[in-house]
Amino acid sequence: MSPRSKEAVRRLTGRVPPPVLQYAKFGLVGGFATLFHSILFVAFVGGLGVRPMLANSLAFSCALVVSYLGNYRWTFGAGSRSWLSFTKFAVVSLIGFGLNSLAIFVIVDRLELSYLYSLPVMIGLVPPVVFVLNRTWTFGARQPPAHAETEAIYPDRR
Question: Per-domain residue ranges for the chain?
Fold first, then answer.
């Protein structure tokens, strides 16, 4: 990134309240993890012929690791990885997994519709629920990590 681009990003993020910036970061990480989950889910079912429930389990497991690595420090400002935070993160993720699985069960097994109809639930409902649980329980309501840019604008936040 060029120095000019870095300066533009610093000015833009410096004006955004920290909780909003945190939500945006969670959205980026979660969006990437959700996209990763969805692509794997479709590839497992459509490309490899894996049953939808098993495909969801496999895709979820991969997306869990991607999501934790992206969120533990960058989004929620955790100082270091810990088993407690990973365990809480996994529990919250299992709640999201349960919601995804319930959607697949109802849509595919009960309504006998295409598995693709479960994607709006996976993409539109589960991520906001998981954000609120991670922000309030897994990582607490911490502020985003302090950076030089943030400290220059909010010097009293440490």
Answer: 17-140
